[in-house]
What we know:
It is found in: Endoplasmic reticulum membrane. This protein is an alpha+beta fold.
Amino acid sequence: MGGSKFQYDESGSTFFYFLLSFLALVVIPSTYYFWPTKRKKEDTGKDRNKCHCEQCGVKSNYLNAKEPWRKAKQRVIKSLLILGWFALFATAYKVAHIQHDYVNWDPFEILGIDPGSSTAEIKKAYRKLSLIYHPDKETGDEKKFLKISKAYAALTDEEARKNWEMYGNPDGPGATSFGIALPSWIVEKENSILVLGLYALVFMIALPTIVGVWWYRSVKYGGDQVLLDTSQLYYYFIHKTQYMILRRVLMIIAASFEFDKRHNNEVIERPSDNIEVPQLIKELGNVGEKNKEKPFCLSYSIKARSLIHAHLGRIKLPPNTLEIDKIQILKKCPYLIQEFVQCVAQLTMLAMAGRIQRTPHLDTLENAMKLSPLIVQALWDSKSSLLQLPHINEDLLRHFTNKRRNVRSIKQLASMKDEERRSILRNLSDEQYEDIINVLGNMPLLEVDVKSEVLDDEDSGTITAGAIVTVTVTLKRKPMRILFDQITSHENEQDADDDDDQENAEQVPNGDIDATQDSPRVKKPKVWEKNKGKKKGGKAGKNKKKVLPTINKKKPQQASNSSNEIKSNVGKSPAAADSDRELESDADSEKSNFSDSEDKRNDDISDEEEWDKVRNKVSKKEKLLETKSRQSHSVHCPYFPDDKQEYWWIYLADRKKHTLTTIPVLLTNLVDEEEVELKFTAPPKPGICSYSVIVRSDSYLDVDVIKNIKLDVKEAKEIKSHPQWDISEEEEEAAKEEDSAVEDSDLLATDDEDSCSDE
Length: 759
């Protein structure tokens, strides 16, 4: 009987095949994802268009200070990947040159004869090889001679030949050998302590530690690595105070537990804070350090709040202490503000559902959204948005507002002519002016298109009471430099018109201007002459309307057709008139056939349009399932310590009631064009409702877009019963008869019971 035999295979092929597959699965994806790439030439070309102001230089130096660590990290990654590829190629070479033990055993091949050889030829070959490989000979080989003898026996002995033909071995069925893809030193007694220690280290220490850290972080943190305790803090204060001003929102953001040493080990507390922070508070003023409400009165909250105030005021701090703390705080502020906005939106939805009584005010949400670009651009809300541009300070802002011009926004500055813009900024050098033009030209200019409909309805354009309305917002992002091109093209058109006017003036004499009626430049009548002509014409028209009688009340098309028929039949014989009528009837039939074919085409087109709508819906659902990238456009923010990407909040609000209608959507991948769907329930009563679609930037000031929309909400349609649910008259009569029979049986039963009780 054949059995099974398990053995650890270190010298065979099993272990090396396992090692080769494992290395391939690890090395190839790691190389694809972690191999450091160099910067492209396109990026270096973009660097030329970047700002070269003083603060941008300070920020670039700060970011480049991390370059040595980044380069060292890249070198370590490269060396590890190269070692992995070397091990992969070495293992592949080893697998390719392995001598397989389990080879098909063929006695004819061992004896060196053909499969159809006779017994005499087999004996002759055996004698010849035995004289060469017999152990007693000088050229003898014991292993080779055993193979030759075994092959000779398999071909000459009947039992051995049957075993060879059935089992592939003249000795009969043997034990099946299974190789385990582990080296043999694992089960050796000498290495037992080492193996047990390795197992204990991996499965009893490392694995539980990794799972515990992951579980602790998943329980402690929420979305965007914001502490759950911080979210609870936001919920508490938003529910407590419905309306919050900007400084109140800033105070709550500064009280986040991410800035507390007890919740975040990255926070550094220095003895110098006891001296530097009070001095900074005296310099700032109105920080609210005397507030006794917790956690606003705690030291970490006062420090974070004062550092944010100093950042918004663009105040220089000690570089080795407070400046480092300010950088750590500012990096986390955008994520904290996003969490605050989500908390306000969720509480608003809960209040609309009737689960809580207090509804957060819309201004609370918008003040939180305003705080994000203020922190990114290091400005207070009372400052001008023009201070986002490089080389512009408070002294230079005086040139923007005077009797001739009143430039107060970024778009107004971009819409000006280049000569006027340069005259305002005449105190700056050409390089500084070029920096302003580059930054201004790269700022966003949004085009917002809004479409409201009721999806999954036959009449999607009609909005009924209580229906789920889908507002599709299409955002097109263009650079502000498009306004430069529009102005230059407009100037060129004006110059061309002026040239044409000069040519026409040269061709036409001065005294003959009134006589040239065909020329575009005709002398216009006076205003009083126009009024006189209108009055006269109006009176004549009124008189004509009074005199003309009403001859025929037919429609215009019918009257014209009847008149044409009368005119065409005048002077013709009856036969000719009949033939003309037949021709007209044939023409009408052809027209009807043509209209039928057009209807079929229109039906086909409508089917195609419906199919296109279905495909668009499917593609939109697929886009929703895809993970959105967080790369859009880099923001010019020299006072923000890290690279910032443009994000946009899109939401629907009711400005009259100061309430939020939909949860704000944070768009993080607006490169050129994107679509966002906002869904809400229409009001329960019919009427005209006004809403505002608001698009706010989290990085720039004075680039927000507000679109007002009006929805004509109509009464809800009556739900028609399904044909299968309708009951015929016969079924109704049968049901009535059954009901009457049941009532009669109930009456009989009660009579019997009464009679029994009487007895």
